[in-house]
Amino acid sequence: MEQFLGSLAFIVLYGGTYGVVLFVLSIGLVMTMGLMRVPNIAHGAFAAIGGYMIVNVMARWGLDYFSAIVFATLCVALLGAVAERTVYIHLYRLPELDQILVTLGMCFVVVGTLALVFGPNIVSIPLPSSLSQQIGLFGRSFPVYRLFILAVGAIIIAVFWLVFDRTSFGAQLRASVDNRSMAQATGIPVDRVVMLAFSIGTGLAALGGGIGATLFPLEPLYPIKYLPLIFIIVALTGFGNIKSSIAVAIVVGITDTAGRYLFPELGGFVIYVLVIVVVALRPAGLFASRRGT
Amino acid sequence: MYKLSALLRPLLQAALALSLISPAVAQETIKIGVLSQDTGPFAQNGKSFRQGIAAYVALHGRQAGGRNIEFVFRDIGGPSPAVAKRLGEELLVREKVNMLAGFSLTSDALAVSSLIEKTKTPAVLFVASSPLVPKSSKYFLKTGQHTAQSASSAAVFGRMHDKKRAYIVVSDYAPGHDAQKAFSKTFQAQGGEIIGEARVPLNTVDFAAIVERIAQAKPDIVNVFVPPGAPAIGLMRALAERGLMKSTMVIGMGEAEDYLLPEYDDSVIGFYQSLYYAEALDNPENQAFVAKLKELFGPNTQPDFASASAFDGAHLLYQMVESQKGKAWDGPAAMEAVKGTSWNGVRGPVKIDPATRELVQNIYLRKVEKVDGKLKNVVIDKLEAVQAPTNEWMEN
């Protein structure tokens, strides 16, 4: 029984943290897909840029871990806004294939540049000693770092909920996702909403790249390597169900961790079974509302 | 154009006649094609191959047996047997190379085995370590290792440290399976018990789940085999997080070469590896090699098992050219000449086993420690003249 409880606690905590990192990494793409219908293949590249920025400002300017993360998140959010205004704005009217080609090309450029500047090997973000300790929970020890991820996730989710449900920007965002032309007709500055949403999304990707660097190590191929995971979250969420992406990410994280724990050899594939089942039975999204669009 | 060729013809005929009379007089060049991975996920190997060869050339010159030696490099650029085969053809047919060398991946080597068999071209394997490769063509020689040499030695080292209960974790691909089999077989033959084995998908980077299982099985030795890079770093971190790095003997193969150690955090301290090379080896050959590397490529350059293999491989290639001194070039004869040859490599004494064409070599037990604030692999033990197992041993 004690072993069972220990295992359960392990799956929930580790799966939960995994899910939180996935959520932070992919929320930007969920919003972009919903708002602009652009499959932004380069989304992971923003996460990688954020991660590399954290490593470098810590090593070169001596910034501490937490300020480096905040700094990188803000910088990449700004970069995202600039990219949206200069590059993505030209993509909205193009066919999907062209959108994929351009963003995939950007992804390759980032991969190549990272390899050229920082070398082909993995770089790691040194954790502060406050996070690299262990803490006793449920009769066993857990790394403080995992709890830190959960805390960051909880804050982001709370802020998200508030902004989404309680502010006029949230209302404008929801309106733009649901029906772009109608939103425009009612006087909502959709262009600005799109830019802000894109910027927030890329900033969060950078944050995910930073706090998740222990789970997904930073390397030049990062933007391509973890793209399937991000796309799984997007696909299971469905178009525009921004709020449900939180639950989807946690479900994916826990399923994956439980799969790997219970069946080590096949565990890595349990997640794909989940994807197949969900896409077959609920193509609109795991927690999509049943109303027609 | 026609006139020019008419003018050149007698000259060409004269040149041809001369070359037929005395093949070795006009400083003939032996070309060696190096198939490597210079870009893509295995780019580190290609870099090491070039550095190892460059260091050897810088120390021993560009000539052997009265002939010039020229290396021609080709980049496969990723795990692609089709590209390896095409480049192999190009090297053999267009560049007319006399020998091949390099090979990071088993699949790179298997892709050219029919080519070298047909053209009777000797090929020296620097890294590809699956037993399938020497079996696929009699023209393969090896200055890397047979996976089982290090894996079986890991089991022997474990028993020497009086470990009894082993858990094996390997990446789920052919080299991982070979390593798993060799360790498991040797550990049990020496009286140990395998209490758990797991093959994890190659793309795994978060090992927390499997490490949780290992911890619950309470082993006293954990044998690991995962590719360097993200998987290895993830595994070490998870093992340390769960306290296994301290409570058990975690032993791997080449996951934490010295040049890779800056990628790890302190979680890797206490990690053992069983491998045929270590940067810290203090034999004179290795010290000359490391000094030359630093001189050629900058003071921060560090060797690894791939550059050590390339250096020793270059020596073997030079010996083959040397053996044909004064004769017309004959690849198979050059190969026969070096079967059974032994020399002092940068990894210590080595010998080409004439029966298997594998390398007989020392296997070292290394442990990652913090020396003067820097992570280092410290050599703490060695097994001398370890032979590669026979194919029958591997199959049963």
Tell me about this structure.
The complex is a heterodimer of chains A (293) and B (396). In chain A, strand 1 and strand 2 (140-143) form a beta hairpin. The model of chain A has no long low-confidence stretch (mean pLDDT 86). Chain A is mainly alpha-helical and 293 residues long. The longest helix of chain A is centred in the N-terminal third of the chain and has 35 residues, at 2-36. Chain A has a single domain (2-119, 138-281), classed as ABC transporter involved in vitamin B12 uptake, BtuC. Chain A has helices at 2-36, 43-61, 65-86, 96-118, 144-166, 168-178, 180-185, 190-211, 222-225, 227-237, 244-262, 267-281, and strands at 134-137, 140-143. Chain A has a two-stranded antiparallel sheet with strand order 1-2. Chain A is globular and about 60 Å long. Chain B has 396 residues and is of the alpha/beta class. Chain B has two domains: 9-145 and 283-357, Rossmann fold, CATH 3.40.50.2300; 148-275 and 362-395, Response regulator (Rossmann fold). In chain B, 44% of the residues lie in helices and 23% in strands. Chain B has 14 helices and 15 strands. The longest helix of chain B is centred in the first third of the chain and has 20 residues, at 2-21. Chain B is globular, with a radius of gyration of 23 Å. Mean pLDDT of chain B is 89; it is low at 21-25.
SSE series of chain A = HHHHEEHHHHHHHH
Proportion of strand residues of chain A: under 5%
Counting DSSP H or I runs of 4 or more residues, the number of helices of chain B is 14
Outline the low-pLDDT stretches of chain A: none
Order of helices and strands of chain B: HEHEEHEHEHEHEHEHEHHEEHHHEEEEH
